[in-house]
Amino acid sequence: MRHIFVINPLAGKKGKKQKLEEQIRSASERLGEAAEIYETRSQGDGERFVRTICQEKEAGENIRFYACGGDGALNEVVNGAVGFEGVEVGCVPLGTGNDYVRNYASPQEFLDIEAQLRGQARSSDLIRYEAERNGQAGESRYCVNMFNIGFDCNVVDQTSRAKNWPLVKGSFAYLLSVAIILVKKKGADLKVFYEDGSAFDGKLLLIAVANGCYCGGGVKGLPLSKVDDGLMDVSLIKNVPRRTFIRLFPKYAKGIHLADRKAPEIIDYRTCRRLKIWANQGLMKLCVDGEIIDTEKVTFEIAPRAMRFSVPAGV
């Protein structure tokens, strides 16, 4: 197995990159495994690097890439690796959210580099999507964990700005952003077309299309989602009053909101293999694994067992 660590130098706290590189060299020497390190230079560079290595690899060669960063870094590595034989993807979570790995274990358990090098890959689903803008469809890409539109996406957008404010860091930036967006009560105005022929048309608080359970650094918004069941989980929360959402949010964060007696009235939670969402007015913000794009229409389709995801030994 060829081990390649793809490091986002902007992820994590200052000095974390240097410590990680030392851990990689130390663990690989102890195990007698050769490990390579590549530091990304710009957004999209990780995807380009991984795809180039995959295209040039020899027949029969096995490679495992470790995305060292947040969910966005993992998304880049997966989009570079998807479709190639003999390729696995792992993750060393250094970002703010680190939500995909939470589907397997605590992010802390993924920081053991020796366990990473001794890890085993499992077949996992991805979600293939195609976004359309100005009547032009973009290329097909893959989401690893979750899409968010409406409240959740607006919170991510606000959090990216709040993290740059003095004394606002980590989970506090997220909670502060939740409060700000709640005051504004920014949702979305959408058409949602399900594969069974049913549809939703109008204003909503949020909709999430998920492969995994978590977003926002551990908020368990889609608690029934599984990364290997061949299905997308879709959660649509109607345009409820602020007081209703405030009451429900603690349960939403813990993933126990579906058991609330009022849940059937305000939440449409279902699974499907295909889905379409259109913006009713102009562009909508679509959050893909923590990164935001603007689009008019987007189609989603589950890609069963499209990724070999490496889980550290002992997890």
UniProtKB/TrEMBL annotation:
<dbReference type="InterPro" id="IPR017438">
    <property type="entry name" value="ATP-NAD_kinase_N"/>
</dbReference>
<dbReference type="InterPro" id="IPR045540">
    <property type="entry name" value="YegS/DAGK_C"/>
</dbReference>
<feature type="coiled-coil region">
    <location>
        <begin position="10"/>
        <end position="37"/>
    </location>
</feature>
<keyword id="KW-0175">Coiled coil</keyword>
<keyword id="KW-0067">ATP-binding</keyword>
<dbReference type="GO" id="GO:0016301">
    <property type="term" value="F:kinase activity"/>
</dbReference>
<protein>
    <submittedName>
        <fullName>YegS/Rv2252/BmrU family lipid kinase</fullName>
    </submittedName>
</protein>
<dbReference type="InterPro" id="IPR016064">
    <property type="entry name" value="NAD/diacylglycerol_kinase_sf"/>
</dbReference>
<keyword id="KW-0460">Magnesium</keyword>
<dbReference type="InterPro" id="IPR005218">
    <property type="entry name" value="Diacylglycerol/lipid_kinase"/>
</dbReference>
<dbReference type="Pfam" id="PF00781">
    <property type="entry name" value="DAGK_cat"/>
</dbReference>
<comment type="similarity">
    <text>Belongs to the diacylglycerol/lipid kinase family.</text>
</comment>
<feature type="domain" description="DAGKc">
    <location>
        <begin position="1"/>
        <end position="134"/>
    </location>
</feature>
<keyword id="KW-0479">Metal-binding</keyword>
<dbReference type="GO" id="GO:0046872">
    <property type="term" value="F:metal ion binding"/>
</dbReference>
<dbReference type="InterPro" id="IPR050187">
    <property type="entry name" value="Lipid_Phosphate_FormReg"/>
</dbReference>
<keyword id="KW-0418">Kinase</keyword>
<keyword id="KW-0808">Transferase</keyword>
<keyword id="KW-0547">Nucleotide-binding</keyword>
<keyword id="KW-0444">Lipid biosynthesis</keyword>
<keyword id="KW-0594">Phospholipid biosynthesis</keyword>
<dbReference type="Pfam" id="PF19279">
    <property type="entry name" value="YegS_C"/>
</dbReference>
<keyword id="KW-1208">Phospholipid metabolism</keyword>
<keyword id="KW-0443">Lipid metabolism</keyword>
<dbReference type="GO" id="GO:0008654">
    <property type="term" value="P:phospholipid biosynthetic process"/>
</dbReference>
<dbReference type="GO" id="GO:0005886">
    <property type="term" value="C:plasma membrane"/>
</dbReference>
<dbReference type="InterPro" id="IPR001206">
    <property type="entry name" value="Diacylglycerol_kinase_cat_dom"/>
</dbReference>
<dbReference type="GO" id="GO:0005524">
    <property type="term" value="F:ATP binding"/>
</dbReference>
